[in-house]
């Protein structure tokens, strides 16, 4: 099953990669005179930092809002570049990368998933933590059940959804519950953080334990409640340049932007914590 | 679908022996098609962690999920029979304005992404749904996150298979038998029960098997509408998907169980009830 899905995604990605390569060739011919490149040259010390062409970024779904903004900023700053994103579950992205997907940058929602790629020799250099994400309780707008702590979720009659423990948000929720020595029986273990949040947005569940960034992204459809135990379950997000990056130079410039004060500002506005 | 295949098989036996030579232009793509369908299954077998398989399969979670899958798929098939066969009869035997549109709508779940079906079910039958809020207010019934919710999600996705199969059989069956029964004094419902139903039994059986198999493999609508809780709403496909996140070996083992059950049932039922003669 995994073989099939990996193969399938590899095939699609190869088609995408061919397109990307074509774009890259075209933009190289156009040879934009991009002089005000602000990227601090990282690993590419020999070549002058003059990023061009397409950067393909594989990033955790929770980064979608922040990274989309940063992608636009990057393209503005470096005319002639194009940032394409593939947002998805970190695990499946990691599987695509180890399966040979032509990506330049991988930003994962957990060090464990990044390690899968690192162990396979897929990264160039050491991954660096660039943001952290904290859990929050998402409740219905107006918090009709008066939820003010993680313990409040354990009261009977309340429909709570958690992420499944096989996905990072579920593992983090488990850590937080253990830290508070709480026993919580949810009505469902959802397959990812977005679907847990959706159950609250549709008012099918009364509360969900999700990331702060997801609550922020949902706007006024849910209300966020902070809880102290979340400090014990903070998720680190590592980012890395990939070993087979088709456009390593521009990729490094993008990573530099993400780690810059500017990039951090965009991401903290989306609800992330600085590393 | 299955019905037309059955008719073809029946027709072939009547028209005599098969042509002895198969043109290469047909044989090659046919074999390619066969290989394409079988290759993923072969890959699953090759990658199965046979040494750790017994351990994977004896975990109680596996049997819990399998039992729930079998029970829910069977209940979904039963529900489909109760409401789907009359619906098929309505489509095949009566004439009303907009029938073509109704038939198209009935088959919509066949092409609709199951996740979309799940969302639609939530909006209709959820606690806050169009109908669901009344179910909750009047009877205290909420369907999401319950086993009943799994059955409903599976029925939504699987019933169209039964309906189109039965409708096709009804169209092929001669309505004159029913008419004869009614002229002999039987009510329309008696004629349906005593004449039509036995006449279309093979079509109903074929449709049931298709619906059952589809329900057994249902994933998207189930996880969206009924959620995922071990023992209550976690069916095998859900268990497989979640195992794939961090334990691919377990996912392969679970897939193998589901595959074995599906093949066994399809093969057994097909030989007994579907193929004519």
UniProtKB/TrEMBL annotation, chain A:
GO terms for biological process: molybdate ion transport. Residues 1-30 form the signal peptide. SUPFAM superfamilies: Periplasmic binding protein-like II (SSF53850). PROSITE patterns: PROKAR_LIPOPROTEIN, TAT. CDD domains: PBP2_ModA_like_1. Molybdate binds at residues 62, 90, 193, 211. GO terms for molecular function: metal ion binding; molybdate ion binding. It holds the Pfam family SBP_bac_11. Keywords: Metal-binding, Molybdenum, Signal. It comes from the Bacteria. PANTHER family: MOLYBDATE-BINDING PERIPLASMIC PROTEIN (PTHR30632), SULFATE-BINDING PROTEIN (PTHR30632:SF0). Belongs to the bacterial solute-binding protein ModA family. NCBIfam families: modA (TIGR01256). This is Molybdate ABC transporter substrate-binding protein.
UniProtKB/TrEMBL annotation, chain B:
InterPro entries: MetI-like (IPR000515), MetI-like_sf (IPR035906), ModB_ABC (IPR011867), NifC_ABC_porter (IPR006469). It comes from Streptomyces chromofuscus. Keywords: Cell membrane, Membrane, Molybdenum, Transmembrane, Transmembrane helix, Transport. Belongs to the binding-protein-dependent transport system permease family. CysTW subfamily. The gene is modB. GO terms for cellular component: plasma membrane. Pfam families: BPD_transp_1. It is a multi-pass membrane protein. The keyword Secreted does not apply. GO terms for molecular function: molybdate ion transmembrane transporter activity. Part of the binding-protein-dependent transport system for molybdenum; probably responsible for the translocation of the substrate across the membrane. This is Molybdenum transport system permease. It is found in: Cell membrane. NCBIfam families: Mo_ABC_porter, modB_ABC. It comes from the Bacteria. The chain crosses the membrane at residues 21-46, 66-92, 104-125, 137-166, 195-213, 249-269. Residues 66-267 form the ABC transmembrane type-1 domain.
């Amino acid at each position: 099953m995994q073989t099939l899905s990996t193969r399938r995604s590899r095939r699609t990605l190869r088609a995408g990669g061919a397109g990307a390569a074509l774009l890259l060739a075209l933009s190289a011919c156009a040879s934009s005179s991009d002089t005000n490149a602000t990227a601090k040259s990282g690993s590419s010390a020999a070549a002058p930092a003059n990023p061009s062409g397409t950067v393909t970024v594989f990033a955790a779904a929770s980064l979608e809002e922040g990274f989309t903004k940063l992608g636009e900023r990057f393209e503005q700053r470096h005319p002639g570049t194009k940032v394409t994103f593939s947002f998805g579950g970190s695990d499946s992205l990691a599987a695509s990368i180890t399966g040979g997907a032509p990506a330049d940058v991988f930003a994962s929602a957990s060090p464990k998933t990044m390690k899968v790629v690192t162990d396979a020799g897929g990264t160039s250099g050491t991954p660096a933590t660039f943001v952290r994400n904290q859990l929050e309780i998402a409740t219905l707008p107006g918090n009709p059940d008066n939820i003010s702590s993680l313990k409040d979720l354990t009261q009977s009659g309340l429909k709570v959804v958690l992420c499944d423990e096989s996905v990072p948000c579920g593992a983090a929720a488990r850590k937080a519950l253990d830290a508070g020595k709480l026993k919580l029986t949810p009505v469902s273990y959802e397959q990812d953080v977005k679907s847990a949040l959706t159950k609250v947005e549709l008012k099918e569940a009364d509360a969900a334990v999700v990331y702060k960034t997801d609550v922020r992204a949902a706007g006024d459809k849910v209300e966020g409640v902070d809880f102290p135990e979340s400090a014990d379950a903070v998720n680190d997000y590592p980012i890395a340049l990939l070993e087979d990056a088709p456009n390593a130079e521009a990729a490094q410039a993008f990573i530099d932007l993400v780690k810059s004060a500017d990039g951090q500002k965009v991401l903290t506005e989306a609800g992330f914590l600085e590393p | 679908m299955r019905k037309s295949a059955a008719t073809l098989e029946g027709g072939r036996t009547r028209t005599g022996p098969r042509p002895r030579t198969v043109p290469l232009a047909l044989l090659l793509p046919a074999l390619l098609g066969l290989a394409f369908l079988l290759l993923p299954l072969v890959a699953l077998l090759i990658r199965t962690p046979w040494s750790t398989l017994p351990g994977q399969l004896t975990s109680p979670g596996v049997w819990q999920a399998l039992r729930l899958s079998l029970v829910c798929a069977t209940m979904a098939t039963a529900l489909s029979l109760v409401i789907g066969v009359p619906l098929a009869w309505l489509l095949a035997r009566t004439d009303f304005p907009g029938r073509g549109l109704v038939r198209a709508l009935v088959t919509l779940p066949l092409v609709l992404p199951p996740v979309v079906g799940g969302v639609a079910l939530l909006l209709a039958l959820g606690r806050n749904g169009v109908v669901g809020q009344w179910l909750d207010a009047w009877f205290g019934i909420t369907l999401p996150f319950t086993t009943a919710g799994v059955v409903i999600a599976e029925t939504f996705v699987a019933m169209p298979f039964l309906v189109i199969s039965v409708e096709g059989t009804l169209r092929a069956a001669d309505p004159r038998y029913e008419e004869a029964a009614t002229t002999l004094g039987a009510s329309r419902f008696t004629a349906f029960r005593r004449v039509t139903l036995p006449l279309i039994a093979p079509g109903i059986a074929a449709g049931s098997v298709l619906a059952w198999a589809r329900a057994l493999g249902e994933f998207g609508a189930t996880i969206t509408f009924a959620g995922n809780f071990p023992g209550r709403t976690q069916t095998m496909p859900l268990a497989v998907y979640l195992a794939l996140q961090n334990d691919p070996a377990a996912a392969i083992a679970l897939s193998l169980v589901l595959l074995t059950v599906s093949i066994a049932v399809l093969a057994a039922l097909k030989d007994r009830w579907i193929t004519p003669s």
